[in-house]
Amino acid sequence: MHILVVEDNSDIAANIGDYLAEKGHVVDFAGDGVTGLHLAGREDFDAIVLDLTLPGMDGLELCRRLRQEARKTTPVLMLTARDALEQKLSGFESGADDYMVKPFALQELEARLTVLARRARGPQSRILKVADLEYNLDTLIVTREGKLVQLNPTGLKLLQSLMEASPSVVTRRELEMRVWGEELPDSDSLRVHIHGLRAAIDKPFGKPLIHTRHGIGYSLVDPDALPKPA
Fold first, then answer.
1. Are the C-beta atoms of residues 56 and 38 closer than 8 Å to each other?
2. How far apart are CA 73 and CA 103, in angstroms?
3. Less crowded by CB within 10 Å, the N or C end of the chain?
4. What is the DSSP string of 107-160?
5. pTM of this prediction?
6. What is the CA radius of gyration of the chain?
7. What integer is the mean pLDDT of 201-209?
């Protein structure tokens, strides 16, 4: 995530920034309300951490102007040292999305920011993609080279397991458990269904994606992505 931290306490800002950076997020900083409003209105952040008490312009005014004047809907998590209901209500009325009271746990702060950013993005389609093969987990539509591929429910389960693990090998046991659970079928069932899966997603196309690791299991790999032999 790209996060803006608007906090005039340099120690608190540094602690937040260091923790979020260690978790792989990109963090920008503002030490006063005017600078914070300028950055928040100019850039597209995934979320904003906003202190309530700031020099130049307090957090309530910043949030209000961000919503009403800049027309930004960036999620705002407001920080304050005051745990009063009136302050929380004022924060929400100004347009804040969440509220944390100092001192707070950095792990919880990141968790709340993640939830806010996810909500702001709205529903996300879940699409698995390997080479020119795509599987939309929401619509259960499979395509290769843009052409529709028809699979039965067992084939869809096998394909999802292989695509999620790609390029790693999935053992026969793991595939059988994914499809049949504890009630394992006869020894040939998996081989038969893999054969059917190959017939649907590999045979009509020029480049096979499903590969057998004899005695171990199967993998679904784009051969163009494999390292070339020396």
1. no
2. 26
3. C
4. HHHHHHHHHHHHHHH-----EEEETTEEEETTTTEEEETTEEE---HHHHHHHH
5. 0.55
6. 25
7. 92
